[in-house]
Write a structure and sequence with these properties.
Blueprint (H helix, E strand, L loop, with lengths): L6 E3 L3 E4 L2 E4 L3 E8 L2 H23 L9 H15 L4 E8 L6 E9 L2 H19 L1
Antiparallel strand pairs: 1-2, 2-3, 4-5, 5-6
Helix pairs in contact: 1-2
Keywords: Membrane, Transmembrane, Transmembrane helix
Pfam families: DUF6232
């Protein structure tokens, strides 16, 4: 996981870390502060995913295999909690294929300073999108 977020904005592209997005395809931008509900949903999703993988792959082959999905659920939920971020920089991006317009989370961070950086870039993006 990256320690810091690097955002480079030019008149034609918005680059976040190693990913670049064309400015002509960006429709809107926002900064979102994630709540406990968001973290809980992520924990449940990753926990269910790891439990189901272990259930379908290992049940019946190992001794005490019936307990592995529960252990996988707890491990997945803990992994989701440990890798969670508090602030998310999102853009509404118009893809060139049949996907259409979607909100993409392009950067995440738990630092208050990064939230201020995100808000600064959102303001710049909105100013460019209006003109």
């Amino acid at each position: 996981m990256r320690k810091s977020v690097v955002i480079k904005q030019t008149p034609t592209h918005l680059c976040v870390n190693d990913d670049c997005y064309s400015m002509r395809n960006i429709v809107d931008a926002s900064v979102e502060e994630l709540t406990w509900k968001d973290h809980l949903l992520r924990m449940l999703g990753l926990g269910i995913l790891t439990a189901s993988i272990l259930f379908f792959m290992l049940v019946g082959e190992l001794p005490y295999a019936e307990y592995l999905p529960a252990v996988g659920f707890v491990a997945g939920a803990l992994l989701a909690l440990l890798t969670s971020a508090k602030y998310v920089l999102r853009i509404e991006y118009n893809h060139q294929d049949d996907t259409g317009v979607q909100w993409l989370a392009i950067a995440k961070s738990g630092k208050k300073t990064d939230k201020l950086l995100f808000e600064q870039h959102v303001a710049q993006l909105k100013q460019l999108l209006v003109s």
